[in-house]
Amino acid sequence: SNFAFDDSNHVYGTKIGTFDTSTQLWVFSSDIMYNGNSAAKVPDMVIPGQDFRRAVTVPQVCYVLWAVNVTFATFCISWTYVNRKHTVVRASQTKFLGMIAFGTMLSSGAILPLTIDDSSADPTLFDES
């Protein structure tokens, strides 16, 4: 059924077709009206193929960003350990600061999969059709 509203905002339904279980197709009683009150069929959307190529410098940039992040987090862990007896560092809970720095190192590892070269991958490998 196709539902619509009349002038007084009451809902009414109209039977627009039935589903034929033997052919697994819809059988419509009249033309389907698309947006804009047009019976012209909307063309199917064409999905472009994926381009597996990428810039050659992407892996180098990823490794540099990963190294900077891990180096800085290691520095923060070391600085926290060296100054663990200082009042401000003790108040900030050295174990918690270490966990935060370790977590940043762990999350920066998400950059590394960007360096995987998939240009030789079979484009139909994950095709659902």
Could you provide a short overview of the structure?
This protein is 35% helix and 12% strand. It has 129 residues and is of the alpha+beta class. The longest helix has 25 residues, at 58-82.
Folded structure, characterized:
The protein has 129 residues and is α+β, with helices and mostly antiparallel strands. The chain has helices at 58-82, 87-91, 94-108; strands at residues 2-5, 11-14, 17-20, 25-28. The radius of gyration is 30 Å and the shape is elongated. The two termini are 30 Å apart.
What attributes does this structure have?
129 residues; alpha+beta; two-stranded antiparallel sheet; two-stranded antiparallel ribbon; 35% helix
Main beta sheet strand tally, sense and closure: 2 strands, antiparallel
- Terminal CA distance reads 30 Å
What coarse outline follows from CA principal-axis ratios?
elongated
Report the β-strand fraction as a percent range: 5-15%
Order the strands across the largest sheet as they lie in space. Answer: 1-2
Rg (CA only):
30 Å
How many DSSP-defined strands? 4
**Mean pLDDT, nearest integer?**
79
Number of distinct helices: 3
What percent of residues adopt helix (DSSP H or I)? 25-40%
Could you say which structural class the secondary elements and strand pairing correspond to? alpha+beta
SSE string: EEEEHHH
* Low-confidence sequence ranges: none
State the oligomer.
single chain
